[in-house]
Structures are given as C-alpha cells and as structure tokens.
Q: What sequence folds into this?
C-alpha cells in the first residue's frame, strides 16, 4: 500500500463536540471527587485510572532501519535507539484484587526525544505512549465518557461489597448510574476480554494520534518466543497474581515487543472523534516501526514501585508536535491527567519528576 492511500494530517481532522468544554469540566470535577474518596480509603493517593502497577520496566526502543517513507515520521524518522521506562498496570482507579479481571495497561516513556513539545510547560525531552490491551475505548467520545464517569462516581459511593461484581462485569453495572442514556455496546464488550498473562497481551493506543504527516493508532505486540508463548495463559487465583507473574518472568527472561502503526486511510470508516470504532485491518494493516527490548531485571523492587507509582507521571500529552493526541477522548486528558497527577503528588508529598537519564530509574 503506497503512501498516497494515507490521509494527510491537518487540523481539520478534529471537530469539537457539542458541549465539549462543559462536559470536560464536569468529567474532571467528578474525577477529582473520586480521587479524594479513594485517597480517604487508602490514606494514599493513586492514579484515577491504572492505579495498580505490576512492574516498572527498564528497556530500549529501536526504530527499525529502512522503513518506507510513510512510516518515517516523528520519532520514527530515522534509525535510532532510545531508552524507555514502561509501567504495567490494571485499568481501575483503585487497588483491587487481581482475582477481579480488568484491562491491562502499558505506559511507555521514551527518553531523549528531540522536537517541539505540544504543551508549553513540558520541557522534558520525553515522549509518552499509553496503551491498553483492547483496540478501542468503550466510551469513544466526550459525551459517552461523561456517562461512564457518572457510573464510576456512583460506584465509588457504593458499598464495597457490590463493587466486585460491577468491576468484573461492567455491563452489569450500567444501572448504577442514572445517566439517562444507555452505555455503549463497546463497554459491554470489555467484560468479554480474556483475562490472561499480561506479558502475552497486545496493547493498543485505542485513540488516534498524529503520526508526523499522517494520523495513526499504535500497538505493541509480543515478538520474542518467551512472551508470545504466554498469550492466553490464565492468571492464578491470588490478590497480587499479575505482579508475581511479571516478577517471576523477568527474573530469568528477557522480552521483545514490536511497535506497530496503523495509518488512517478513510475518515468515515476510521473516525478520529469516536475512539470506540475499530479501524478495519482490511483498510489499513498494522505496520512494524520498531522493537521494544526488556532485559532480565527486578521490575518491582520497593524503590521501583515508589518511583513508578508516586514519582513518575505518564501522559499522552507529554509529546512532540508530530505525535499530538487526537479526538475528544484525548482532549479530555489535557485537564484530567494534570488534575490527577497534581493531586497525587501533592497528597503523597512527592515531587513530580521527568527522568533525564535511564539511570534515574532505581534498580
């Protein structure tokens, strides 16, 4: 498929949604109330999403040489090796037992990236990519997210004994929030995602981002045999089973994942403003752009856990202009991530730091 099939990026690709500014303010305010409830529960502030980590990985990202011209964009413009820090997590904004199935997250911080940053206050030379083991967002636009956030706030106010069932099957929790709207079918699909070994999963950006001259979604898929063999492996029945799986694996093994880009070819069938719509592979396949390599290591030492959970901040808007997040779901994150991060660092009395060197990651 030649590069003439790919739509060029322009600001006209995005369209502000009805009542978007007002809805974002409501969403962020609701998130803040939930954050405070969770803090009162634990006497410790956690992320409003992906609160529970399972490993903080030190690795390297290699941009493949000889990429076709349409893939030589942004940080992928030339062959290069970058140090990376990756935080593995589960999606809920609370520290729930690993006996309760949940989506997984892979937050990736690429160090030493050169380029103009989107946010003026972001002076670090880092690029963040946030991915989840599901190709679409259940709540694909700002209105759907507001409905979902109201459900999450109602759940935070509910007795703890009813939360496990709601968290295990989000579709069954739809009635908890009186939003006046049915939640999208894609939210119900989340409950059907297999709950298996985190290291065997494929992770997706879910929403679109600028890809230099083009627009893309990113994914990271198991590449080396040790992690490919883990795909579909069940999770043991234990409160910290996922962490234990990650620690046990990296005690003696390394891991490789392939980063891939799926470029936009058709705005009607591959919308940017609705992240709940799956972009068809028949219109645009995922194309390899580089390799993530993680050596054997201790991914969950006490020092790493504190650094990854309390010090670091991962944000898709920690980015260069060539990889700006796109769509209303991503625009929510400008205020939401800043609010959550500021609250977490303030309440935990931690200075928010952006690493300048991979050696700042504790052993």
A:
């Amino acid at each position: 498929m030649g590069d003439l099939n790919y739509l060029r990026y322009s600001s006209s690709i995005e369209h502000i949604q009805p009542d978007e500014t007002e809805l974002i303010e409501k969403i962020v305010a609701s998130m803040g109330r939930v954050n405070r409830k969770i803090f009162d529960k634990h006497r410790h502030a956690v992320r409003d999403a992906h609160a529970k980590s399972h490993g903080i990985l030190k690795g390297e990202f290699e941009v493949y040489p000889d990429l076709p011209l349409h893939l030589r964009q942004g940080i992928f413009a030339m062959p290069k090796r970058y140090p990376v820090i990756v935080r593995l997590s589960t999606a809920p904004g609370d520290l729930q037992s690993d006996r309760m199935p949940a989506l997984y997250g892979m937050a990736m911080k690429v160090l030493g990236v050169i380029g103009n940053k989107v946010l003026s206050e972001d002076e670090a030379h880092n690029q963040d990519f946030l991915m989840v083991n599901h190709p679409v967002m259940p709540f694909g636009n700002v209105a759907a997210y507001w409905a979902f956030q109201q459900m999450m706030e109602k759940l935070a106010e509910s007795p703890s004994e009813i939360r496990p069932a709601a968290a295990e099957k989000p579709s069954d929790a739809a009635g908890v929030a009186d939003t006046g709207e049915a939640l999208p079918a894609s939210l119900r699909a989340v409950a059907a995602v297999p709950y298996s070994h985190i290291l065997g999963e494929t992770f997706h950006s879910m929403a679109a981002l600028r890809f230099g001259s083009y627009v893309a979604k990113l994914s990271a898929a198991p590449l080396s045999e040790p992690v490919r063999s883990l795909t579909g492996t069940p999770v043991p029945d234990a409160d910290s089973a996922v962490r234990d799986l990650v620690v046990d694996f990296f005690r003696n093994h390394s891991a490789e994942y392939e980063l891939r880009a799926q470029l936009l070819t058709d705005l009607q069938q591959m919308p940017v403003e609705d992240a709940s719509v799956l972009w068809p592979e028949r219109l645009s396949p995922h194309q390899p752009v580089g390799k993530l390599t993680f050596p054997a290591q201790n991914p969950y030492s006490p020092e790493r856990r504190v650094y990854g959970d309390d010090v670091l901040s991962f944000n898709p808007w920690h980015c260069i202009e060539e990889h700006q997040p796109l769509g209303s779901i991503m625009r929510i994150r400008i205020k939401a991530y800043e609010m959550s991060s500021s609250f977490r660092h303030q309440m935990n009395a931690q200075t928010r730091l952006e690493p300048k060197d991979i050696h700042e990651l504790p052993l």
User: Anything to note?
Assistant: The chain has eight helices and nine strands. Helices lie at 20-42, 142-157, 163-168, 185-190, 225-228, 241-252, 302-311, 328-347.
